[in-house]
Design brief:
Number of strands: 0
Structural class: mainly alpha
Number of helices: 5
Order of helices and strands: HHHHH
Distance between the termini: 57 Å
Strand content: under 5%
Helix content: over 70%
Largest sheet: none
Radius of gyration: 21 Å
């Protein structure tokens, strides 16, 4: 029996893992949507927005645990296990930062934000949405590369086996 076809069809195109990433990224986008509202509402309404962000952060933490467990139990992963952990933790850290900022506005009873904060808050919103959209791109790259038989997609880690260089190599004869 050819086990390689089973490995490629189930593990490399693992939809559960990417469904979890998508859910985590959606929590980030939802938090990002709340940031512009946080800086424009009356101070008395900020607690409610913070509570919404905090609930999303709690959900994201649960998703992080599921992603790590899923990656750790997979025989073959769609890309490097350390990258799976890094992506999941980076998404979670982003949500943690948004929650922390929202918490500080409530804790310190911020009455008024500095002039010009609205475009920055909108930029945070757009970046969170772009990050969430990008998870779909990663999923597509991994799926296409798995279909081609490439285990480690070059688009995700183009320099996987290259050491970092501090200085250029000297040329022979110099």
């Amino acid at each position: 029996r050819d086990w390689s076809s089973d490995v490629c069809s189930s593990d490399l195109k693992d939809s559960v893992l990417f469904d979890l990433y998508t859910a985590q990224a959606e929590r980030l986008a939802s938090c990002g949507l709340l940031v512009p509202e946080l800086v424009t509402v009356k101070p008395g309404k900020r607690e409610g927005i913070y509570q919404q962000i905090s609930a999303l952060e709690t959900e994201a933490d649960q998703l992080l645990g599921k992603i790590i467990n899923r990656a750790d139990t997979m025989l073959i992963t769609p890309f490097d296990r350390s990258d799976i952990h890094l992506l999941a933790n980076t998404l979670d850290d982003s949500i943690d930062s948004l929650e922390g900022a929202a918490e500080m506005t409530v804790l310190h009873k911020v009455e008024e934000f500095p002039k010009g904060i609205e475009p920055i808050a909108d930029c945070v919103r757009r970046l969170a949405e772009l990050t969430a959209t990008s998870i779909g791109v990663v999923r597509t790259v991994v799926t296409v590369n798995a279909a081609r038989g490439s285990v480690r997609p070059a688009a995700i880690r183009p320099q996987t086996n290259r050491p970092d260089r501090v200085a250029p190599r000297p040329k022979p004869g110099r």
